[in-house]
Amino acid sequence: MKKLCFFVVLICLLILTCGDEEQTRLNVVFGQEPEGGRDVTELICIVVGRLEGGTTPIQAKLEGWWAESIGQNELMYGSDTWTFRTQNFEELPLILQAPQGYVFVGYFWFICSWTDENGTYNEIFSDTAHCYH
Fold first, then answer.
1. Does 107 reside within a domain?
2. Closest CA to 98 of 55, 41, 48
3. Nearest to residue 44, comparing CAs of 74, 69, 64, 27?
4. What number of CA atoms fall less than 13 Å from residue 61's CA on the CB side?
5. What is the CATH number of the domain that holds 107?
6. What is the pTM of this model?
7. How many helices, marked H, and strands, marked E, lie in the chain?
8. What angle do CA 129, 32, 23 make, to 5 degrees?
């Protein structure tokens, strides 16, 4: 009977400790935020990230947004995706360019989003750049 109890406790401990493995998460920050100003023709945003707690690849999406006025008629201007695969720092850049012969006018910001291995959805927002002519 004592042996049976010992094996049951041992199995329970194994199950509890095996299910306690750390899952991969993505650590992301803005390496370069958009800069507004007068007669801007190009906006650059770069996020820098790396995997932590594991090596399961995680895909991130970087979106550039525009609005004529803050909080009104927001439109996505461009986007790109990147799959982070290592625990070394990697960069995800997004460059928005005004049509040839034009400059940006309005407010621009960037949103980076991803889902960690455990299913947690994450978003970070850049500073807002005000562009004018």
1. yes
2. 41
3. 64
4. 12
5. 2.60.40.2550
6. 0.83
7. 1, 9
8. 120
